[in-house]
Structures are given as structure tokens and as C-alpha cells.
Amino acid sequence: MVYSGAVTAIVTGGGTGVGAAIARRLAADGHSVVLMGRREAPLREVAESLPGALAVTGDVGDPDDCGRVVAAAVDAFGDLEALVNNAGIGNADESPEQWEEVLRTNLSGAFFMAQATLPHLIERRGAIVNISSTSGFLAGPGWTAYCASKAGLIMLGRSLANDYGPQGVRTNTVCPGWVRTPMGDDDMEVLARERGLDRDGAYALLHKDTPIKRPAEPEEIAAVVSFLLGPDASYVNGVALPVDGGATIFDPTSAAFAESA
């Protein structure tokens, strides 16, 4: 769809980090934003800072919650043109319980939200953007559930693009690398303690082989989402777009040649 004006968008996991940045960017673009998440306080804090934004608590892993949030969005704004599936968690615990929790939030939750929003998106010829990760392409140590969920999210996006593109609904997936968010900072604190570094040193260590030698800022991810939901991306459908400073273009086996040069 080529939007001629403001649209209504739901952003899941909209209370912190990348989700909050996406909500702020879409509001700055003139859109009405509905923030969904499990924690009321951060949702309301972000919503109250944006003109006309709505905060609705809910768990994306609960189909009833998904339907309730979509109904609240349509009731408040009259229509719905966009969904940003951003809610996600990570856990290094490889127990069956944690596997189920990560898959339920990161993958099933996006599916449930798509199911709840698609009748409206079809009517309005709207768009979906999933927030996956470069972990959907690349395995990490002890990250089995997270990587599997993010890989599944990429294929979910492609499947939705194929199934609903003929009805005018575009679906694309953004795959960030490391982003400087509270979740990313927590991971850096763990690495920093193990390596005797500070947080910035940990981020630098992770990006020593990345062409752009730093993590992303949340606003940089939000800018890509804004593009994919907007008129300039009207013929972009089914892509899985790495936004990682070039991290996934580097062949780690080539480092030996650089070291011997």
C-alpha cells in the first residue's frame, strides 16, 4: 500500500529498547501508535510521551490478548494498517520450559498477532514488519531457542508475504545485529565481567570484525522499520533485511589470511 497520510500501527514490546524507538519514530512520522507489552509502567511512560498514543497491556503468546489489543486499537482509531512484531525474549537456559517460553513469545506471538490483525490489514492493504535478528541466520553458543525462534520468524514473514501479498498485505523482516538497548547492555555486563572489561569494551570486542565497528542504536533500527512501512517500500515484500553494520558479510575463516599478511 502507498499510504497517503497517517496510519494506525501496533508495536509489540513497545515499552523499551527497539520497540520504544520504533513507536517514537512512527509517531514522529505522524502515525497513531498502539503499544503492546506485558509491563504496564514502561508502556505508559512511552505512550504518554507521544501524541495520541495508546498503551494496552497484553501477552503476545496469548491469542485472546492479541485479539483484545487489536480490538482496542480499532476502537480507539477506527482502523489498522500496520503491525510491528517486535516483542521478544532471550534465555540461555536450555530447559524444555525455557524453550517453550522463548518460542511462544518470539515466534508464536508474532503468528498470533498476525492472525488477529490480518482481517484489518487486508481491508486496508496494510503491512507487517517482524523484528528478527542476525541470530536467525547464525548460531550462537547456548542460544538454541533464541536462534530457532528468530529463524522461524524469518520464514513466518516469507510465508505471510507469499500468502497475503496477493491481497495487498506486505510482510518484511528486519534482522538487527547487536543493538545498544537495556537487553544488550545486560549481555555486555556479563561479557565485561568475564573478560575484565567495561560495557563499552565489551561492545567493542564483539564488533572488532564488523565493518562498522559499533553496535546499532535503536533509532537506526526504527528508521528501517519506518521505511518498510512507508510508500518508498511499496514493492518490497518478503525480504529478511540484515541491519548489522555488515557483520554477516564477514567470513571468519578469512581472518587467518589477514593475520598472515
Blueprint of the fold:
Layout: E1 8-12, H1 17-28, E2 32-37, H2 40-48, E3 54-57, H3 63-77, E4 82-85, H4 96-124, E5 127-131, H5 144-164, E6 170-176, H6 182-195, H7 199-206, H8 218-229, E7 240-243, H9 255-260
Parallel strand pairs: 1-2, 1-4, 2-3, 4-5, 5-6, 6-7
Verbal overview:
The protein is α/β, with parallel strands linked by helices and 261 residues long. The chain is 48% helix and 13% strand. It has 9 helices and 7 strands, in the order βαβαβαβαβαβαααβα. It has helices at residues 17-28, 40-48, 63-77, 96-124, 144-164, 182-195, 199-206, 218-229, 255-260, and strands at 8-12, 32-37, 54-57, 82-85, 127-131, 170-176, 240-243. The protein has a 7-stranded parallel sheet with strand order 3-2-1-4-5-6-7, with helices on both faces. α4 links the parallel β4 and β5. The protein is globular, with a radius of gyration of 18 Å. The termini are far apart.
Give a short synopsis of this structure:
The chain has 261 residues and is an alpha/beta fold.
Q: What portion of residues is helical?
A: 40-55%
Parts with pLDDT < 50 across at least 5 consecutive residues = none
Query: How many distinct beta strands?
Result: 7
Determine the mean pLDDT: 94
β-sheet strand percentage: 5-15%
Largest sheet: 7 strands, parallel
Biggest sheet, spatial arrangement of strands:
3-2-1-4-5-6-7
- Number of helical runs? 9
Task: Provide the gyration radius in Å.
Answer: 18 Å
